[in-house]
Amino acid sequence: MRADMFQRSENRRYGIIFDAGSSGTRMHIYRWLDSDTARQEGNLKRLQSLPVLETKSKWTKKIHPGISTFGAKPDRVGPDHLEELFKKAHKVIPGDVVEDTPIFLLATAGMRLLPESQCKELLKNICSYARSHTKFQLPDCDVHIQVITGEVEGLYGWVAANYLLGSFDSPKEHDHGKGHHTYGFLDMGGASAQIAFAPNATEAERHANDLKLLRMRTVDGTPTEYKVFTTTWLGFGVNEARKRYIEALQKEGGAVDTKVLQDPCLPTGLSTTTQGDVFLPASKPVNAQKPYLNGTGQFDKCLIKTLPLLEKDHICEDDPCLLSGVHVPAIDFDVNHFVGVSEYWHTTHEIFEEGHKDKAYDFETYQKRVNEFCSQNWETIEKGIGKHEYGKKVDEKTAIEVCFKASWLINILHEGIGIPRVGLESAPSGKTNGTKQVLEKAKEKGYTASFQAVNKIDETEVSWTLGKMGLYASSQIPPSDSSPLPVGFGENVPGIPPDFQYAGAKALLTAHNTTSDTESDYWHDNLFRASSPRRIPGFLLFIVILSVATFLLCGRSRRQRIYLRFTSPSRHVGSSPRKRRFFGGKIPFLRSGSSLGNYERVLEEGPTSDNFELGSIEDASDDVDTSDSSSSSKASGWATPRNGISQSVHESRERFENLGTGHGLGLGIPGNPMERSGLIGRTDSRERIVGMAEGRRSRRGSPKRHKEMGLKPLAED
């Protein structure tokens, strides 16, 4: 995956994702160049492509059992389960980027079966443990630690498959006709099965409300959008389908307590319990009251027996439907070419195509090999297992299950989804090609068969986790000025759908040189992060907050006396003005004793005054202008006269209002001053705040009214 790009730069980003399945949790670690480096080093083609993700097999680790087994003891999921994975992650992730490395734990089928209360408590403990025992980036537990639906899992898988196949970055090289260049995705586990694909243009328009809008971003910030259909069938995974198959055999036998059930999906001479435990025919079942299965080795009948499990006869409320009455837009196999992972790969390759990689699925050859294998008696198969004739990964359990699994996959693909039973091509001799010839021919064409089982593409495992991390990496790229829309997916409507799921907790909504809404949402993070240019020293911030709180608690009359003591103009009249105290008589957040009105805060444009002012304090409350202007600066504001003020203050105001252009201008508002209400003010733009940090002074606002005591972040224009 272009690993050479990563060797030329140290500016790398990492991401960790845990696939929390029903049988175990697998950790995946991915790495990519940060967007600035990728833009500097990338050529035109690279800039118009998605970020390049790198992963290695040694960065992956799986532990058992699944986290759902901790439902009754959620406090143990950290020390007894996650600790081992975190230790592995710290060995891979460089220490200086740990705090910038996001971590995701996304649970699938196993957690969906837990009671809601147990599920919530378990997720809460996972997040708490991760935050207290690691420094990985975890800003939002609801986004980073969650149970995902089968539809979302399928969508991530679709992204991963098309990313690895190159259809996103090089659409012309994957033109399937009719303007279509993406591949469909099929996944099957133990409990459920998923499908995800982009329908052709006609079906996409006809079933627009059934599609998901998926948005990604290339390295240069350009958005790319796809409309994808995805759905899941719970109970259609191989293990759950097997359970339904046994139940059907029992009903066919006439009673659930029938002792022997003839099973055409088991090899001849093999007897097992309904749970799959093997025992010899002469021995007694584990529980004599329960039935057991006797293999007859008839694969053609096995296909017939498993066909009703597709539930094709269910009522279809929204036509068209595929399995169990679930709506799926019509699939155009002229342009929709599918890749299948997980059980689609294991069952079609790990036993019958041991050692073969990236080979096309050939229905006739595959079914012939399955039929030959399942027709053998169990004794012959056992000997083959001992000699590793079927591959090193094939043990007794795999051999027992493969006949049922093969029949189930064949029926799902061809009778259920409707994939054509093709794959045979004429050999030069006019005879039907064998498997080797067919697969070599398919490899020359690329993945253009109607169905292709895959495990790895370019040495990278096709996993939905790659799709999730690819979306996250894409979301970290600043968008182009012309399209600030975020990366993620949701309802198929323009803009940002109401159910939009952001690819990252901090989605970049604007270009790199502008201010995003999300960035301001995290203003408090930026203040204290050591790497942030907006970081405020903690001690200074504490002193400022303490000063403001003390002043606000003094009461209005005392605040007025304090202010008049230090700022009253009458103290400066005469030949020997009283020496200013503290900060030259200027405290920017004090309310003027001569006004009840609100003031507009402005930034001075000219050189700074000789008088020293306190550093900036962010306050979104009422603003007031109380400082003198320098001779070259301009100031403006609204002042409301106040009844009952001392004569000296009135004289000072008259004197102040008659000052020349060298001072600020105060404009009185006619009318009854007590009838004025509301807030007149504005907040400074980010650009002006930056200017203030570079040396310009700002007019400070008055404290908030007593009903809103405290500070809150400055609202941006």
UniProtKB/TrEMBL annotation:
The chain crosses the membrane at residues 536-555. Residues 627-636 have a biased composition (Low complexity). Residues 607-717 are annotated as: Disordered. Keywords: Hydrolase, Membrane, Transmembrane, Transmembrane helix. Residues 697-707 have a biased composition (Basic residues). It comes from the Eukaryota. Pfam families: GDA1_CD39. Residues 708-717 have a biased composition (Basic and acidic residues). Gene3D superfamilies: 3.30.420.40, Exopolyphosphatase. Domain 2. Belongs to the GDA1/CD39 NTPase family. This is Nucleoside diphosphatase. It comes from Stereocaulon virgatum. The lineage of its organism: Eukaryota, Fungi, Dikarya, Ascomycota, Pezizomycotina.
